[in-house]
Model the fold of this input.
Amino acid sequence: MPDSRLKFLSKIFSPKKTVYNTVEFIDIAGLVKNAHKGEGLGNQFLTNIRETDAIVHVVRAFENDDIVHVSGKVSPIDDIEVINTELILADLSTVEKLYQKAVKNTKAGQKEGLPLRELLEKILPVLEKGESIRTLSFNEEEAKLLKGFQLLTIKPVLYVANVSEAGFENNSHLTSIKDFAEVENSEVVAICAEIEAQISKLDIQEKQEYLSEMGQNESGLDKLIKAGYKLLGLQTYFTAGPEEVRAWTINIGDSAPRAAGKIHGDFEKGFIRAETIAYDEFIKNGGEKGSKEVGKLRSEGKDYIVQEGDILHFLFNVN
Done:
């Protein structure tokens, strides 16, 4: 994951090793109509999606007579709705089976199954209307019940609009995707696959010069990585020293002990405190020593919620 902060910390510490965060994208072949019935890659496609944390729709948003669209016309909303419909129908089939089982169990007097039955009764009408489950809100208990079923339309979605070189502005296809995404509170990233293919062959300096000429400050791939990170509710903290400068991925809202556990389980079990400096303060005050002199190095306990960009040093004790 591109991060200029990590580069800057590496310049300061000159570590033996610099380790970046990673976001994994799995490229899955296009979905066809009636995939939920097994057409095209069918169940294999749906199984691949079930194993992901989020869904990225790559949607065509450019006109080119030399590149034929499978449906004979360029209509990104139609493309999105074909995929959404297949995912909804797949979820509907799953939920109907679960509901039939839940009804039988509760009729047999298994009262512990009532919360699941009530949850499925909340979900079923939404799917039957052709809407995604992510349009609903769930409490903690409901979310826990749903987790094991790997439903598709509960996953957060990011739309990637594949535009032409001149298609970042005044593009009706891109506008229609943004309007669609706004309704369901999803994000859109515009990328030109042609530009990405060209810059993939360049070195870092040539890449920046090319992007500047195109009026872009970062590549579409970098934008996609950052958008995916945000979509999953993730954030970064750093550890830094002469041996290693490293970015760590945690969930937004994680406590200091939970963050420490990303390094090693013993760090979380034996957590004592975290010496903490915000990245901006670290840079502003010339590092750890200067930050400490002006009171910006803090000692935080178990209840501290780690903030984006914190530079942390953990103290722990395991007997």
About this structure: Residues 204 and 210 are 10 Å apart (CA to CA). The longest strand covers residues 244-251. DSSP finds 13 helices and nine strands in the chain. The mean pLDDT is 89.
